Structure formats: structure tokens, C-alpha cells
Structure prediction request, 266 residues.
Amino acid sequence: MSRTLLCLAITAVSTPLLADTVWLKNGDRLTGTIKVFDGGKLLLQTEYGGAIALDWKQVKTLKSDQPLLVKQDEHTGEVAKSLQAADDGKVVLANGDAPKTVELASIQQIIKPKPVITDLVWKGNIDAALDFQQAENDTNDYNVAFKTSARHGDWRHNARGDYNRETTDEVVGTDNWSAEYSLDRFLTEKFFWDGRISYKRDKVEDLSRQRVVGTGPGYQLWDDELGAFKVGALLNRTDFEFSNGQKENFYSVAGTWDYTRYLIGK
Prediction:
């Protein structure tokens, strides 16, 4: 019994020590986990109130034992091993023997640093829309789309696809689907080589089949808590097949980009 009480006491004392702390100008002190600071809002994940968005102008100082990337301008940042509380309107970026005190007003972003990827990291989403209208003309509209990405080490797999079908009074006006797969091999932290293949099938339009195979370089500008942005260039071979059996193929060069922005972080 005494051992159980001792364990409970140690747990109760230790838990707050592991939490991040934010002191507000009105005297309140909040504990939780700092998720991200961007756009003038500090997102604090708490056990008692979920995710709380705090006005940065109302923050007096803060403390965190987790490594955080602190940006004071758009292009440069410093990964602090921890954040230590300081005088009003300031915070200490602790990095071993060279701690640095900065003004809170000078900080533009605080995000989690991107770890070295050694295990599988997966993310993706599925969107679906169904629309049924019964009137003078009955209309049925189906739209389904997915996008997914998985990374392991220097390899990243990307896949996307969609299906669209629309009928009006049982007459098919749209009936098509498409799929794309790409494989990225990172040569450096930012630079990668992209190979991809895509296919589209259309049962209504004259262009019934499209196949594209491409390869080329790419560059990952960023991929963090706030979103991701990558650009690239591809040399493609495209094959067209028409509903009358005619076929065409050609080579082309294309630019690619993929931009994702989260309003308040992941």
C-alpha cells in the first residue's frame, strides 16, 4: 500500500515538471504542450481544455523542455534545446553553454524541428461528395478523391486518385477516374529525384485513355508543422488513346508544385 501511494505521489509531482508553461500578463499560468506559434497565436495543447490558442501579445514569458525551432525572420531560425522563462516580454533560448535571451516581439514562428526520418511516416486524406437532385431533371453526382504520402528514410511514396460520375435522367454525362503514383529519392535534405506514372480513363469523352510517365529533379522548400511546399521539373512521355482507336504520343517538359498550408499547424 505504501509503495502504491509513493508511486502516485512521484507521478503527481513529476507530471507538471514535464509540461511546458506559459505565463500570461494577467497573472495566469497555463501548463501543457506547446504545439506551434504562428500568425500571432500560440497553440498550447492541454489535458484540461484541449488545444488553446493564446494571443502572443498577452504572453509574458514561457518555458519548454522540448527542442523547438524559433524563427525571428522568414529565412533563418535556431533550434533551441529548451526555452527558459525570462523577464517580462522575453525568453531564453537554451543551447548548452551559449543561452540567448530574445524579445518575444521579435519571434515570428515557433515550430517543432523536423526530425531525421528513420521510420515510416504516413499522411493522407480522402474526400467524398454525393449530390442527388430529384426535380424536373433527376441528377446524380459522385465525386471521390484521395491523396496520400509515406516516407521511410530517403524514400517517399506519393499516390493520388479520383473518381467522378454524373448522370441526368439516367443519361451519363461524366464518367472518369484517374490515378497517379510517384517515388521520390532524396539525395540531400532538400533535393530529390522524382519518378512518376499517371493514368486517366474516361468513358464519355473522345480522349478515352491518357498515360504519362515522367522523371526529373525536385526541391522540398519546407515540410513542417505548418505545411509543406515542393517544386520540380519533369521530362514526360504522354500517350493518348481516343475512343475511335486512334493513338498519339509525344514528349514534353513540365513544372510541378505541391503546396499545403495548415491554418494553425497539424
Notes: The chain has two domains: 2-111, 121-261. The first strand starts at residue 20 and ends at 24. Helices lie at 2-18. Residues 1-17 have pLDDT under 50 and may be disordered.
